[in-house]
Amino acid sequence: MPKIAILPDVLASQVAAGEVVERPASVVKEMVENSIDAGAKSIEVEIQKGGASLIKITDDGSGMGREDALMCLERHATSKLKNAKQLSAITTMGFRGEAVPSIASVSKFRLATREHDAVEGTEIIVDGGIVQDVKVAGLQPGTIFEIRQLFFNIPARRKFMRAESTESAHVEHQVKLHALAWPNVRFTMRKDGRTIFDLPATTDKRMRISGVSGSDAGRALIEVPPCEESGMEVHGYILPAEFARKGRRQQFVFLNGRPIEDPAISRALKDAFKGALADGLNPSAWLWIEMDPKLVDVNVHPAKKEVRFHKPFEVRHLVLTAVEAALGAKSETASSLRGEPKIISRKDGSSSPVRQPFENKSEPEVHPPAHSREAVSAPTSSQSEKNASTEPEVKPSFAVKTTVEQKELEVEANVKDTPQFLILGVLHDRYILLQGDDGLVVMDPKAARERLVYESLLDDGSAGVESQGLLVPELVDLDPRDFDVVMTNLENFTEAGISLEPFGGGTIQVRSMPAVLADKDPRAFITALIDELVDTVGGKRGKSMAFEVFAEKLAKRAAWNEVAKRNGVEPFLEALFSCDLPYCAPDGRPTLIQLSLKELERKFS
């Protein structure tokens, strides 16, 4: 008997669904793209229970006749691709003919469609890939795709679906992504019977960005005027450096109407901001790129998220040039200052450096604690002799020495067995150099600040972290996925002294911040903290994520822009060594490292 056999059609479709249908958002993506290809001017998406119970997409596109409606349920059946020559110049969103039969094979599927000039429509019922009924139906012109009980016949796949709120957030993000790509189409979304948004068709991309991303982004947009090069054109909008985020979740790139992700374009965006972005941050941008379909291959990824450019260097240069020109139009100096901080002109004609996210305010001169001032005062020689003759010598348990004006200063602290240091200086505003008993000690103030904030949160966690109310509550517009992160960790935010609540749509209202972070910009800090928490959503921890993990991420974000300063090193060290674990950050990174004299001697031998 032969060992190799052709898979049954239903099983083949279910296998294909493993590539096409990752989650409910994947279904929405494929169906919405079909609606766009059908010329729809209005698309409505409705979901229930995160899409697991119901996904319904209604459009006013061209619709289908009875024969085409039945044919679209066959694998590799498509009206968008006729021959191999067309494959090198794809102009439609979909083209493989796998989406509809794959989705129908793993759900209870209903298709209702009617052409504009037809008297009657067609309704088809499919159960797990098997056609159950085909009948005449009366409905408005266009098409309705209704998907119920997704993965009902593949329990293993259904088990891997995330929480309802997480799946809903991904669906909402997917719809908004296509709404940005096609602003001339009206998009409406409903969730569990409630309208989430209704975006009217518009020719103004700025209006669509504001509708999708919130008014905060809309007010700060910098236009990227159309820029042409080598038969390609790019235009769009960017946000100033202070809106930069960790990761690339706020970068939206559309190629001939198709949302794509491309590392070369992301790199070009970051290079255009060079000198104005903190390490690890990426700018926010909305870019529309138009080019000859022959210059790009879109058939390289199952979900068509990635593409392959025939001229990748030209595309990168085009984006870099266009964004630099946009920044230059807002800059008092030319883009030739790349590598140096950009200077943004103010309305009054003055200028100031671009404010970095989480920039620490200048710290006032910090004096040692009152109980240590006698030890800090430099005694005269006569006083020293007198003290030596009348009092026994007492070795301080904590001492910090410095070379300011050739005088040695000592700061006492009630900490036992703490090493003594001579403060040498600061290296590149990044590290603090100290002389220890046996060589050079280098302190990382970021790691040290993380340890301080982390233990402060944990020490106060049981009684509630001391919180400081904001004079004016801060409204923060969030992406649906970011909003889900906040709602998932709402209890942890409250325990950490951050009081916030939903304010309608994807907006939250921040009422208070922890006292230890009172100098932070609430909007920037919250969005950056979300970036740290993004990987926890839908994971095993979920809503029950331990507060220790949340505190660790919050401490990391709080110390993100910590700058090494000579002023205030003494009390900083004193506070560090009052911690339970002063020698490491919460994630295990060292706060101090030592290079012994023997190591240094070996380097020079």
UniProtKB/TrEMBL annotation:
Basic and acidic residues: bias regions: 339-349, 358-374
Which residue numbers delimit the MutL C-terminal dimerisation domain? Answer: 423-571
A Pfam family recorded for this sequence: HATPase_c_3
Q: Please note every region of biased composition (Polar residues).
A: 378-390
Against SUPFAM superfamilies, the record matches this protein to: ATPase domain of HSP90 chaperone/DNA topoisomerase II/histidine kinase, DNA mismatch repair protein MutL, Ribosomal protein S5 domain 2-like
Q: Which GO terms describe its cellular component?
A: mismatch repair complex
Question: Residue ranges of the DNA mismatch repair protein S5 domain?
Answer: 209-328
Annotated GO molecular function terms are: ATP binding; ATP hydrolysis activity; ATP-dependent DNA damage sensor activity; mismatched DNA binding
Q: List the keywords (alphabetical).
A: DNA damage, DNA repair
Span list, region Disordered: 330-398
Swiss-Prot/TrEMBL GO biological process terms: mismatch repair
What PANTHER family does the record tag this protein with? Answer: DNA MISMATCH REPAIR PROTEIN MLH, PMS, MUTL, DNA MISMATCH REPAIR PROTEIN MLH1
Question: What family name appears in the similarity comment?
Answer: Belongs to the DNA mismatch repair MutL/HexB family.
Which HAMAP family does the entry mention? Answer: DNA_mis_repair (MF_00149)
What the protein does comes down to:
This protein is involved in the repair of mismatches in DNA. It is required for dam-dependent methyl-directed DNA mismatch repair. May act as a 'molecular matchmaker', a protein that promotes the formation of a stable complex between two or more DNA-binding proteins in an ATP-dependent manner without itself being part of a final effector complex.
- The molecule here is called DNA mismatch repair protein MutL
Q: What organism is the protein native to?
A: Rubritalea profundi
